[in-house]
């Protein structure tokens, strides 16, 4: 009688292990693969939200507008980079620093924000409505 009980226990534990190990492995691999599958995300923000982020953090602001528009007026401390320049020289930017993208159009901002996230930039925001939504001071030439 006692050997049947031991046998049942052994079968039970084997069954639990057979079911548990693959489940644990799926969870572990799922967690490891999840960030790369999603590719991270950028966040669309308003001008007020962007201003708060700029006032309270170290940021890099990338203005995608054409140079002649940037020269007329731009957000202080922003840098003017075209889409092509960003995709060629993104490695010269700090991936750990908060990045705010100022789009020329909604689509170019989303493309560059997604590109930066895909390159490993941690905190990427896009000022969806563009510079017109910026409530703070602007530098004018």
Automatic annotation (TrEMBL):
Gene3D superfamilies reported in the protein's UniProt record: Rhodanese-like domain (3.40.250.10)
UniProt-listed PROSITE patterns: RHODANESE_3
Keywords: Membrane, Transmembrane, Transmembrane helix
CDD domains in alphabetical order: RHOD
Pfam family, one: Rhodanese
Transmembrane domains' residue ranges: 12-34
Domain of life, source organism: Bacteria
Classification via SMART domains: RHOD
Keyword Calcium: no
Every Rhodanese domain range: 55-140
InterPro entries, sorted: GlpE_sulfurtransferase, Rhodanese-like_dom, Rhodanese-like_dom_sf
Protein name (database record): Rhodanese-like domain-containing protein
């Amino acid at each position: 009688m006692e050997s049947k009980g031991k046998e049942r226990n052994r079968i039970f534990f084997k069954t639990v292990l057979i079911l548990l190990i693959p489940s644990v492995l799926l969870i572990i691999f799922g967690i490891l693969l999840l960030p790369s599958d999603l590719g991270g995300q950028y966040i669309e923000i308003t001008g007020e939200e962007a201003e708060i982020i700029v006032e309270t953090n170290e940021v890099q602001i990338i203005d995608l507008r054409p140079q002649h528009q940037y020269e007329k007026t731009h957000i202080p401390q922003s840098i003017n980079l075209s889409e092509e320049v960003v995709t060629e020289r993104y490695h010269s930017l700090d991936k750990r620093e908060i990045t705010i993208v100022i789009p020329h159009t909604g689509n170019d901002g989303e493309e560059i924000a997604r590109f930066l996230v895909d390159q490993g930039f941690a905190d990427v925001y896009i000022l969806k409505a563009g510079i017109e939504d910026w409530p703070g001071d602007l530098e004018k030439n």
